[in-house]
UniProtKB/TrEMBL annotation:
Stated name of the protein: Acyl-[acyl-carrier-protein] desaturase
Self-association and partners: Homodimer.
EC number: 1.14.19.11, 1.14.19.2, 1.14.19.26
GO molecular-function terms, A-Z: stearoyl-[ACP] desaturase activity
Organism from which the protein derives: Mycolicibacterium frederiksbergense
Keyword vocabulary terms for this entry: Fatty acid biosynthesis, Fatty acid metabolism, Iron, Lipid biosynthesis, Lipid metabolism, Metal-binding, Oxidoreductase
Length: 305
């Protein structure tokens, strides 16, 4: 049994207790409840009218953000493979993998139904994007189980923040309510992984710390490979939905504080070096976020003058 497998084995009771906690807190909900079906009408294939840009009730930025969020959720088969491979399909780990997958599946169902029924985006373009993105799939490479655990601790929170902020700028109370519901799921998923990583830090401090450093330094959202992601990310960032400041302040720092990364005294030389490198990287991110904030303020001031 290698060291990583040993950590997974030691974490099994923690997985079981956190799974019980999750099941006691997760609330059953139904995607169809969040879709205004009365707004729906047939498309041309059924003698109705196909989508036109003026059909959309959404703010243009919200259209971009909701499309990116939905396409990200669409890659669930790949994500299931990732966590089932990294963790296990046996025991408490396996039960969690199934529960997580089933809960995540509701997100794409609800978001797509909302967008199609309300004609929020072009359904033909959306389906073509889904096909391309899902065919390409998602592959995180050769992440160790600890690296995967560290990554999802941040990624689930990043997804929660992105969904929640998208709802707030959508201009639609129903979309806001739907995305708040999705965000609540993502928050519970983040708590599960965050708690496991906290236990992993106690079991294998140096290995866990190095995994955390690597995942923060190399962090990328799982939707990065989709068509047009870079340009869409700029649009989303300019709107303040998800930018460097949000990532640093609302995603990375809260999780690191929970783990007491900069207060721990149980790291060996490798862990200490990883912590120092993480601190240096976060300083760079903070400075870069400040640069973009000041740039945005100048642009707003020039536009107002």
């Amino acid at each position: 049994m290698d060291a990583q497998t040993g950590v997974l084995h030691e974490l099994e009771p923690v997985v079981a207790s956190n799974l019980d906690r999750h099941l006691s807190m997760a609330r059953e909900w139904f995607p169809h409840d969040y879709v205004p079906w009365s707004r729906g009408r047939d498309f041309a294939f059924l003698d109705g009218e196909d989508w036109q840009p003026e059909d959309s009730p959404l703010d243009p930025v919200a259209k971009v953000a909701m499309t990116v969020n939905l396409l990200t959720e669409d890659n669930l088969p790949s994500y299931h493979r990732e966590i089932a491979t990294r963790f296990s399909r046996d025991g408490a780990w396996g039960t969690w993998v199934g529960q997580w997958t089933a809960e995540e599946g509701r997100h794409s169902i609800a978001l797509r139904d909302y967008l199609v029924v309300t004609r929020g985006v072009d359904p033909v373009a959306l389906e073509r994007l889904r096909m391309a993105h899902t065919v390409a799939g998602y592959d995180s490479g050769d992440k160790t189980p600890l690296a995967a655990m560290a990554y999802v601790s941040f990624q689930e929170l990043a997804t929660r923040v992105s969904h929640r902020n998208t709802g707030r700028v959508s201009g639609c109370p129903i979309a806001d309510q739907l995305l708040a519901r999705v965000a609540a799921d993502e928050n519970l998923h983040m708590v599960f992984y965050r708690n496991l990583m906290a236990a992993a830090l106690d079991i294998a401090p140096d290995a866990a710390m190095m995994a955390i450093r690597d995942e923060v330094v190399n962090f990328a959202m799982p939707g990065m490979g989709m068509a047009g992601f870079a340009q869409n990310a700029i649009t989303i960032a300019k709107a303040g939905i998800y930018d460097l400041r949000v990532h640093h302040d609302d995603v990375v720092q809260p999780v690191l504080r929970f783990w007491r990364i900069f207060e721990r005294t149980d790291f060996g030389p490798e862990g200490e070096r990883a912590r120092e490198e993480l601190a240096q990287f976060l300083d760079v991110v903070d400075e870069r976020a400040r640069f973009y904030e000041e740039k945005r303020q100048r642009q707003h001031a020039e536009a107002a003058s």
